[in-house]
Design goal:
With 126 residues, the chain is of the alpha+beta class. It is 34% helix and 33% strand. A seven-stranded antiparallel sheet has the order 5-4-1-2-3-7-6. β1 and β2 (44-54) form a beta hairpin. The longest helix is centred in the first third of the chain and has 21 residues, at 3-23.
Length: 126
C-alpha cells in the first residue's frame, strides 16, 4: 500500500469511522456496521461499511482492498454480523466478486463514485 492510502486509512479509522458508526445501520443510508472478531487478538470490533442488497445477499465495496482487517477477520472466523437498516444479519459466506457483478447493486451516484475512486474489490456476503 502506498503512503497516501495508508494516511487516508489512518485518518478514516480514527475520525470518520467513529462518526459513521453513529449513523451506519440505523437509517436508509447505504452504510452498515460489520461486527467481527480479531483473528489474532480475539477482540470484538465494529466497522462501518458501504453496502447494498443483492437478492438475498449483500454486496460490500472493499474500499481498501481485500487486505482490510474486517474482511480478513471475517474470513478467518468464518462468519460476521451485519447491522443494516436496524436489523442484524449473520453472514457465513463471503465471496469476492468482480466490479461488473457488484456495481449494478449500487445506486447510480454510488456507482459513479466507486468507479471514480477506482474501487476494484467487492465481496458478496450471505
Amino acid at each position: 500500500m502506498n503512503i497516501v492510502l495508508d494516511r487516508i486509512r489512518f485518518l478514516n479509522k480514527y475520525t470518520l469511522n467513529r462518526i459513521m458508526l453513529r449513523v451506519a445501520g440505523r437509517n436508509r443510508l447505504p452504510f452498515a456496521v460489520i461486527y467481527h472478531t480479531g483473528r489474532r487478538s480475539n477482540n470484538h470490533y465494529r466497522t462501518p461499511i458501504l453496502i447494498e442488497p443483492l437478492g438475498r445477499s449483500f454486496v460490500v465495496a472493499l474500499t481498501y482492498g481485500p487486505e482490510t482487517d474486517w474482511y480478513r477477520n471475517a474470513l478467518a472466523a468464518g462468519h460476521c454480523t451485519i447491522l443494516w437498516h436496524r436489523k442484524k444479519y449473520r453472514v457465513t459466506h463471503l465471496e469476492l466478486v468482480s466490479p461488473q457483478a457488484a456495481l449494478p447493486a449500487f445506486p447510480p451516484p454510488a456507482r459513479l463514485t466507486l468507479r471514480a475512486l477506482h474501487i476494484r474489490h467487492y465481496v458478496r456476503m450471505w
